[in-house]
Amino acid sequence: MLNIFKQKDNSIEGQFKRISITGRMAFAIKCLEQFIIENKLENLWLDRLTEVLWEFTSSEDLGEWDKKISDLDPNNVMDKHPDNKPSDYDSLTEKEFYELKTYYFGIEDDLLLLIDLTIDIGTSNLYGATGKYSKKTLDSVLRIYHFAQENLNGVPEIEKFRISKYSEKGGWGNRMDKAEFD
Predict the structure, then answer these.
(1) Is the pTM higher than 0.85?
(2) What pLDDT does 3 receive?
(3) d(Cα 91, Cα 110) in Å, to the nearest integer?
(4) Do 60 and 175 meet the contact criterion of CB atoms below 8 Å apart?
(5) 153-157 — which CB contacts under 8 Å span 24+ positions?
(6) Which residue, 88, 109, 92, is CA-closest to 100?
(7) Within 10 Å of residue 73's Cβ, how many Cβ atoms?
(8) pLDDT value at residue 7
(9) Which of 9, 78, 133, 180 could form a disulfide with 176 if both were Cys (CB 3.0 to 4.6 A apart)?
(10) What's the CA gap between 106 and 173, in Å, rounded?
(11) Is residue 130 a contact partner of residue 62, using CB atoms and an 8 Å limit?
(12) Mean pLDDT in each 10-residue stretch from start to end of the chain (182 residues)?
């Protein structure tokens, strides 16, 4: 069959399949930021977290980004294992580690879920192949999209993220600054 007769999948999933991992990450961060604004949750730790999350979209060294985000990941910081020590977190002082841990234990599950899914988009394929549509990042961004539909007044428009195409750089898309997604 000729390609001109194929219909484009315009479902939400189909749209996100055409958006790169970088674009998916940008969408997720925008949803997280909107959730923070709408729920009046502005906080030094959330500012620091979103700043590091945005580094993903323009970073040429995602391994270095992974180290930074690992230090702010609630799953790591909140780990109750006795071997989870402040000295294991290169970007945090001991005082900051305990402050962040206390902060994370005090926030709502919805916010923790959004943070977790957003970090998951950035880390899922870092050390492996992306596959046809990067199923792991696609699943996470779809969960965020549906969460946003139910919980946000201002859901980011998907069209803004199409500038970063899955067909670029093996699914990762070209590196882009935060401002390019505004």
Answers:
(1) yes
(2) 52
(3) 26
(4) yes
(5) 153/38, 154/34, 154/38, 155/31, 155/34, 156/27, 156/30, 156/31, 156/34
(6) 92
(7) 20
(8) 52
(9) 180
(10) 36
(11) no
(12) 56 96 98 98 96 97 95 97 94 96 97 98 88 94 97 95 96 96 92
**Are 160 and 173 within 8 A, CB to CB?**
no
Q: What is the pLDDT of residue 58?
A: 97
Type of residue numbered 176:
M
